[in-house]
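Quick one, probably user error.
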């Protein structure tokens, strides 16, 4: 006999994060949040290592990096209710550190932080005016899904390169030795940018084994497959002696070499509001805007969170979080921040709401007190690299949603994917595709299909190339 007892009331946690409405559960959210943290925790070590070349000391920058991740990810959890983690961007940090050398004037560390602040304020204004949403919704579904495919392949290649499965071609034998011939004729080897890695290296073997393990677990639909693969590979590495032991475990933040006062609130805004800095501000604006857009669409596509038009519902909320996080990151002393593509790993483990982001933020809080323990992460490419490869394989599924029969959609989509991968830069692919899309439409006599936002984006992206800003 069927019971007439009413169904139990959902908990406050489930109601706040709308977990049932999103088709998720608490276990999947927690697992997704932990997985996202595991795949992006490397930023704690890598970001300070890059920004030290901009004159920003590594110890305080480590604390600033973690604080930015906590601030942005908490906002993403409690305001945007999205399973997206936030941290300083890779690429933008390299631009801040190395990309300003072409200016005719010397750039101080304070001015570098000032450019980050100005960019964040510009994002905030555009978001509040809903212009960022208008621009995002003006992009065709095929182009949006090409972002997901391109970023997926980018992550796959990044994982393969970082683990040594593939490596640079110009290594080993001196390049001149490939050119010398007894009769004086120069017979060159093909200039292949990458080649197969050294499969005799135990770290490469660990990475391959980690990916195979992760893939098998995913095929068998084991929950937490990506996280299990990361942990199992890391443990195996330590057991065979290729993992570096930490020098310590605990350290108090904001003290000693982790004192934040050396960089916090030292930014120079007035110094960057002049003509010589215009190319810098434009570059940061375009690349950060497109990185954020590509990440939001790519992660949403991976979790089947886009609507029928290929748009992310309430996209202005995560965009506002992105803007506020960039402002915060400049204030505490680090580079431009935003949503991380590695969040796709958590989404693939079941994350659909901000509860996953809350878990990720909580783990970043813990890292404030165990920075010495995390410093060896830079030696663990073989552990988290396979996760990037697996996520790339999963994101490739969006290729089926690209209209390959319509060349006005296919050509710019393929250009986006190819340039992301082959120039090893997400911004280059996004800008090229957004320029080609209206060009193809006009060339085919279908100019009425060009949206106002699409035309604006194309013109902005064109300046990216006219000023020689690709990197």
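Nope, works fine. Designed sequence:
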């Amino acid at each position: 006999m069927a019971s007439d007892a009413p169904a139990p009331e959902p908990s406050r946690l489930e109601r706040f994060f709308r977990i049932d409405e999103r088709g998720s559960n608490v276990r999947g959210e927690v697992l997704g949040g932990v997985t996202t943290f595991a795949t992006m925790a490397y930023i704690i070590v890598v970001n300070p290592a890059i920004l030290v070349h901009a004159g920003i000391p590594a110890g305080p920058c480590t604390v600033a990096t973690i604080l930015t991740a906590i601030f942005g990810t908490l906002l993403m959890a409690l305001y945007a209710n999205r399973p997206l983690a936030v941290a300083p961007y890779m690429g933008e940090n390299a631009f801040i550190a190395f990309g300003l050398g072409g200016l005719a004037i010397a750039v101080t560390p304070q001015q570098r932080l000032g450019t980050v602040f100005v960019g964040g304020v510009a994002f905030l204004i555009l978001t509040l005016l809903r212009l960022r949403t208008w621009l995002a919704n003006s992009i065709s579904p095929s182009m949006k899904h090409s972002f997901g495919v391109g970023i997926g392949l980018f992550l796959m290649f990044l994982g393969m390169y970082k683990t040594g499965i593939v490596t640079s071609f110009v290594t080993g034998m001196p390049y001149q030795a490939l050119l010398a011939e007894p009769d004086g004729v120069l017979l060159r080897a093909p200039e292949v940018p990458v080649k197969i890695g050294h499969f005799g290296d135990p770290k490469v073997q660990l990475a391959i084994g980690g990916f195979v393990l992760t893939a098998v677990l995913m095929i068998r639909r084991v929950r937490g497959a990506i996280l299990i693969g990361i942990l199992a590979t890391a443990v195996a590495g330590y057991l065979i002696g290729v993992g570096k032991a930490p020098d310590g475990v605990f350290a108090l933040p904001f003290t000693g070499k982790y004192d934040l006062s050396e960089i916090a609130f030292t930014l120079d805004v007035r110094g960057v509001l002049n003509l010589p800095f215009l190319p810098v501000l434009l570059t940061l604006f375009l690349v950060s805007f497109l990185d954020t857009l590509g990440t939001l669409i790519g992660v949403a596509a991976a979790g089947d969170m886009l609507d029928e038009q290929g748009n992310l519902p309430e996209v202005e909320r995560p965009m506002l979080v992105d803007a506020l996080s960039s402002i915060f990151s400049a204030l505490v002393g680090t580079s431009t921040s935003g949503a991380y593509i590695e969040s796709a790993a958590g989404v693939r483990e079941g994350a659909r709401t901000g509860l996953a982001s809350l878990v990720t933020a909580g783990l970043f809080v813990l890292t404030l007190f165990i920075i010495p323990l995390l410093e060896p992460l830079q030696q663990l490419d073989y552990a988290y690299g396979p996760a990037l490869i697996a996520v790339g394989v999963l994101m490739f599924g969006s290729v089926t949603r690209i209209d390959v029969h319509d060349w006005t959609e296919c050509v710019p989509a393929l250009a986006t994917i190819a340039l992301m991968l082959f120039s090893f830069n997400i911004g280059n692919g996004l800008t090229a595709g957004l320029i080609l899309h209206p060009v193809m439409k006009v060339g085919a006599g279908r100019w009425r299909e060009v949206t106002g936002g699409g035309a604006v984006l194309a013109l902005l992206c064109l300046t990216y190339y006219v000023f020689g800003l690709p990197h």
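Residues 278-302 form the longest helix (25 residues).
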